[in-house]
Please model this.
Amino acid sequence: MDGYGLQLLRLIILALLIMPATAFAITPEERGLEIAKEADLRDTGYGDFRAEMRMTLRNRHGKESIREIKSSNLEVPGDGDKILSLFERPRDVKGTAFLSFTHKTGPDDQWLYLPALKRVKRISSANKSGSFMGSEFAFEDISSMEVEKYTYKFIGEKPCGELTCFVVEYDPVDKNSGYSIVETWIDTEEYRAQKVEYYDRKRSHLKTLTYTGYKKYLDKYWRADEMFMQNHLTGKSTKLEWANYKFKTGLTDKDFNKNALKRAR
Model:
């Protein structure tokens, strides 16, 4: 390298050293996507699990009703999860079953088996914002949150209880979503969702979902013992209490089809 080339190289190195850090900073959208991908990666590879769930519905006057549900979940490589939920109690909903196929792109497939009618009802993509079995969870809340379903924006880091959380805006890609923004609080240590704020299409603060009682399974996968959804517009709430997680139970695709809805008793 001649003297001119050497001098030019020195100038380039000096410019890089004194260049402000902001010149290399990623955008809030890129940072939000990074966090979402990391959270998804940390929960990949569990295979399948079964669990029991107690659903407590509470109206604005404090009156409660309780439902008991068995849930099965199958991880599908290259696509979203498959979920089968069977209602066991009380008698008026016993035998009702819900099947969901989450997809990374495009609308999810969801079906509801109603034993009183002895038929399987498909949930149309236009009705995903509807209430799931009278709860404050919508049908779209029951699906797994696939990275491709949203665009992202990192808001910042904020305290969340004794932890610090990344706050990321998830903007649903699906035009039929009932939400304009899903603001998700993810702890910076384990990348677990701690709180989710849902805003409706008018950007009103509709609901808040909080997760508590996390436990680790298979030395890697975190699951919350309790999920509490508060509807700020109606005053109603739904609490989901999870128990008896069993992972890698041998579930296959055959356990998750429309015939399985009728067999699930």
Summary: The longest strand covers residues 205-217. The chain has one domain: 28-263. The helical segments are 3-18, 28-42, 139-142, 258-263. The chain is about 15% helix and 45% strand.
